[in-house]
Amino acid sequence: MFLLLPFDSLVVNLLGISITVLFTLLLVFIIVPAIFGVSFGIRKVYMKTLLKIFQWATLRIERGAKEKNHPLYKPYVNGIIAKEPTSLEEEIKELRRSGSGRALDTPEFELSDIFYFCRKGIETIMDDEVTKRFSAEELESWNLLSRTNYNFQYISLRLTVLWGLGVLIRYCFLLPLRIALAFTGISLLVTGTTVVGYLPNGRCKDFLSKHVHLMCYRICVRALTAIITYHDRENRPRNGGICVANHTSPIDVIILASDGYYAMVGQIHGGLMGVIQRAMVKACPHVWFERSEVKDRHLVARRLTEHVQDKSKLPILIFPEGTCINNTSVMMFKKGSFEIGATVYPVAIKYDPQFGDAFWNSSKYGMVTYLLRMMTSWAIVCSVWYLPPMTRQPEEDAVQFANRVKSAIARQGGLVDLLWDGGLKREKVKDAFKEEQQKLYSKMIVGSHEDRSRS
Amino acid sequence: SREDFQRIPELAINPLGDRIINAFFPEGEDQVNFRGFMRTLAHFRPIEDNEKSKDQNGPEPLNSRSNKLHFAFRLYDLDKDDKISRDELLQVLRMMVGVNISDEQLGSIADRTIQEADQDGDSAISFAEFVKVLEKVDVEQKMSIRFLH
What we know:
The complex is a heterodimer. Chain A is built from 13 helices and nine strands.
């Protein structure tokens, strides 16, 4: 028994040392490439392996469902009901045609008109375009995470074992690694930018600042195991421009900033975010607002204009939707950033939800819970497209310009282009829209009175 | 509850949105459960041919033509007295057109409609008269919503 004691502590020591060495090696293995911006391609291999596993799992589930004769639950991306995109006038004309068979060019009120409104209303209750954008996208096949498990019953032992293995890997191996990386990244960012801030203004400072920023963002990218594919990098934003992108989560910032050097715009927060913001502004000019200033739109616009007109300053990164949308669509762009008159560089970001859904449902999860969820999914896979720059044409106003940019982004990313306001997540819709519908309908009924009074 | 329905933007801009929401809630209640919800939506199931020959003696299925027409009738009939009076018609018309038409014009439209539909001379439209007016309208197709498979 006495012999066991020194042996015991030896084993414990060895274990401790080996784990530490392993971790350090991993950290170095990941951080060094991050500093220089090269990649070993490990993440791509990881992604391919995961894809193969998912395919096998899907086949297994389908086979199991057929054997047991369960109806397989397949979520539909495009909606569950068949909708016909006809306008108010066409529908009502058709209703009247089938009903009365009278002359159609005497518009007047019919009792059957109500069917149109009734049906449209019920259709929107069953499945509407807006509210489903504010919750995470449903996947077509299961990706071995219990959080996306909607309706799948127990199929086979192998699948459950695979899932269990996945849980083990994600929580016990990947999570601590990622947290360590994130910690390193953030602390390096804060210290690095503070140090650079002490240097005198000049080329050296800019150069160092750029590289410190890039390095830290790259470490953060690896902290999330984000596998990003950049397209059309020749269109990257240049100085004196504004970069606009669709907004899915706060991670968008990290993803874009790890490939380019931007000036951020945002509200000053307290706590950790505030520390990071204050440190960053020492190294290069970002535009941070006090909370009270955000409400004053003119002040905001003025500061942005000043920043943009200085050609030596970095391109500004703005998310005009104003809130996080679940990456299946692009909602209305707020016109503020399009009124400034600078060149706009649109960027489309599309996440692949199979590996981890990046949408931040801020009414459901707080920031820390969200980050933990990100770090315990398989990976964050996304594609970033840099679109060619656009400028406002003389005959269009800010709203039309914003819509033009929005359509370009939606088209490139394969997202649905909606005219609804992202603010509808929390607020009610304005009455002005209802009045528009009413006006349209009343034209149909009243038009006849104008004709009659003429004749 | 009603607020939940009103959070759907596309429903909120529908001029008859409030009337439709009302149709889900049975007399005097403020909450609708899943069963009640489904009952109301069941009115909109497309009519299938094989159902007609099935069961002539049993209770009529919820999505029959007559029940669909009844649903629309209830949208007009605000006080649920099985008659659409001139005032009720005016109120519903006002909902549909907003502020774009004057009161007299609206009044004359309402009068004309009642005149055309009314057969027993009580200046109100009963359910039977309603059905008669709409007998040529393809109700089954217009009031049905198909699910994708």
